[in-house]
Amino acid sequence: MTTVRDLQELAGEEPITMLTAYDAATAEIADETGVDVLLVGDSMGNAVLGHENTLPVTVDEMASRVGAVARGADDALVVADMPFLSFGADEGESVKNCGRMLKEEGANAVKLESGPHTVELTERLADLGIPVMAHLGLTPQSVNQTGYTQQADDREEAESILDLAREHEAAGAFALVLEHIPANLAAQVTEALDIPTIGIGAGGQCDGQVLVFTDVVGMADGSPPFARQFGDVRSEMTDAVSAYVDAVESGEFPADEHASSSAELDDLY
Ligand code: KIV
Ligand code: NA
Questions:
Q1: 158, 92, 162, 172: which is closest to 129 by C-alpha?
Q2: Any idea which ligand is nearest the CA of 84?
């Protein structure tokens, strides 16, 4: 099993690989290829639940998927991404929601979209034995304030990200996701911190990279500009499903080999 300490030891030695997963089957595939971290991202809102954004994802939906991924994964560190408003407002409720992912579902850590409101919470969770991955830059749960454009294009915003990164490290975060910020900012944040940074749309100088599963395998219906499609699963699926439909319509499926009969039942009607 990969631990947060293993990740910290990997940082700077070799790039950390992180990928989202939302079910046991794909978690098993990713785990077998040696992915270090499986993030059960609230990107499931878009990627699997058909929502426009991540805001509607519930704690129950996340818990169900975290359980599935934890059962499918053997070696990878499983991180539960905490949904919009499930953390950060009330401390007791935040601890309960985050704790549930480890206690009941088998996650190894949680990820919180970070800001000034998560510094103390990160410390509290870490004290309680719940490792916290921080997340700065573009934080899609704030889409109504920021849109999906690249963040920190001016000095002031960049400095605030650097400050918040340091504060979350000091509060005990074990790693930091940097999303959709200039590569030279991500490089400096990486330099400034001891904990690993994991980038998405943040250039090649972070300690690791993360992408969304459906983008990587080519199953998504449109991907962000910083993602890369490494496969074409959508067209494979289209081919398989249309071959099935054709085979049923033509009577070619099921064939004799897909069925069995019992002579005893021949004269029931
Ligand atoms: O939900 C998600 O997939 C994420 C990653 C893109 C970091 O938060
Ligand atoms: Na997310």
A1: 172
A2: 2
